# Entry
Amino acid sequence: MNDLNEMNGIRGRSGVTGTNGVNGINGTGNTTSLEYCVIRVKVEVFDVKKNKEIIGFNAMGEASVFLFNYGATLEKAKEKSIDHIVNYLKSGKSKYKKD
# Structure
């Protein structure tokens, strides 16, 4: 993403759009800003009996903030990260050690 600012897991992107005045002279501009809540998760699955890691990988979930509702946005990002974890495990792309 261009012009991306990241701080404490909340990302924002700002852009300037303009409209032309009469005959394309003296354009005016609007500034828009988008904020994202990003969750990064490190997944480690262990065999408790053998005390060994079976598989480990990273997952991410993100959601855009709507009307300053950061709590709901965090929940959506969390749900997306869980969905990504489940989909990755179901995809068969994950390799794990069978002992």
Summary: Strands lie at 4-7, 10-19, 28-47, 52-64. The longest strand covers residues 28-47.
